[in-house]
Prior knowledge:
By secondary structure, the protein is of the alpha+beta class.
Amino acid sequence: xxxxxxxxxxxxxxxxxxxxxxxxxxxxxxxxxxxxxxxxxxxxxxxxxxxxxxxxxxxxxxxxxxxxxxxxxxxxxxxxxxxxxxxxxxxxxxxxxxxxxxxxxxxxxxxxxxxxxxxxxxxxxxxxxxxxxxxxxxxxxxxxxxxxxxxxxxxxxxxxxxxxxxxxxxxxxxxxxxxxxxxxxxxxxxxxxxxxxxxxxxxxxxxxxxxxxxxxxxxxxxxxxxxxxxxxxxxxxxxxxxxxxxxxxxxxxxxxxxxxxxxxxxxxxxxxxxxxxxxxxxxxxxxxxxxxxxxxxxxxxxxxxxxxxxxxxxxxxxxxxxxxxxxxxxxxxxxxxxxxxxxxxxxxxxxxxxxxxx
Length: 358
Ligand SMILES: O=C(O)CCC(=O)C(=O)O
Ligand SMILES: [Fe+2]
């Protein structure tokens, strides 16, 4: 059965908090994915941010790779050859940089100013605005999670010394140009590790799909491989989730939002960290290049994540980020897993039952 997808209109936020809290709680505890509109970032600001990504992607590979991927902080360059090593196709590349005034260029994985002039100075304010949207959204969960009012504003402070929030750009090359088989995914099924993710997609560049009901915990507990206890980094190990996937297509002006494993753990699994993937072309369909941008909201690395009911063991944000990085490096050794993970069967892809106002 395919899902109803919900659009949450954030206009007049301050006066509509209780109504909005009910809406986001419903969306986060069912699909774990929803759209937000009237969030305060203009189409021009978002397009400008995509164009900064273009400047990065058009650099020569060796320059991009000079800020190689650091699994411990889950930031840096995942080039086409790096993802090829991890999933066996050159279907995706990603660049992740750390926010926070504390992270020097190299540690935060920023390329030098002479390589990408004014790149950091334009990206940080955009990402900080996006981070404020995340603060607003998360404040709506504080009462339900029995957290102090203002907790997430504190946790998400990008000036904190241990801030691990990252901003990133994804590029999925034209599968045809890359010589990719049509029965392969462009991004493998995974659940995000963070508290919440803000995803920017462009109309006409679809492909994202979600598997409602299959979250990181459900997956881990039913995975016969038993490799991923507690849904810690199920993104990168163990069984491959299967079922009918729902297309989460781009909507003009909307940001796509999803709950990550940290918030799932914080909420003792009330809020769902749902599996998602980016699909390959359906029969008769040609997919060109796809771009997306992400804000992986982790916040302060030293904060201990545990819900009031203690459904999961206590782990810090930094532990969870590093575990995800380790999992990613592990899959490079498992070619058989890679082939299975990247399999795409058009039969598994469905349109949403409806896209509705929350
Ligand atoms: O490009 C997309 O739509 C999905 C990206 C994603 O899931 C991720 O970067 O974690
Ligand atoms: Fe993701």
